[in-house]
């Protein structure tokens, strides 16, 4: 939970990169600036979950892959090493995030994730 100036105490979407969060706060992020990273996690061959991370194409994606698969500790370490620096200090009010995405025409309903987008 976080205290949003607009929405009060509300949920947080932690999977927004710091660069995208800053661009959104400045009202500078456009639809074409947003990319997603698709994460799939397995344990001993059994699918556990998938998750989407929202990034800034120009600032984040040259350093990141658009999809990560975690099947073991090495995969998890690689994901953490690659992704954590871009998401540390990110996150966003879930209500503000939805409003912003609607405003710029970014469709949150048709994104790849079998678990569904839980924001």
Mind sketching the topology for me?
Elements: E1 2-4, E2 8-10, E3 12-13, H1 18-25, E4 34-43, E5 46-56, E6 67-70, H2 73-87, E7 92-93, H3 94-104
Describe this structure in words.
This protein has helices at residues 18-25, 73-87, 94-104; strands at 2-4, 8-10, 12-13, 34-43, 46-56, 67-70, 92-93. It has 119 residues and is of the alpha+beta class. The protein has one domain. Strand 1 and strand 2 form a beta hairpin. The relative contact order is 0.24.
What key phrases describe this protein's structure?
single chain; 119 residues; alpha+beta; two-stranded antiparallel sheet; 29% strand
Beta content: 25-35%
Shape: globular
Q: How many strands, what sense, and barrel or not for the largest sheet?
A: 3 strands, mixed
Strand arrangement in the largest pleated sheet: 5-4-6
| Rg, Å, rounded | 14 Å
The structural domain count equals 1
Mean pLDDT: 91
How many strand units? 7
Sequence of secondary-structure elements: EEEHEEEHEH
Count of runs of 4 or more consecutive helical residues: 3
Concise overview:
The chain is α+β, with helices and mostly antiparallel strands. It is built from three helices and seven strands; from the N terminus they run E-E-E-H-E-E-E-H-E-H.
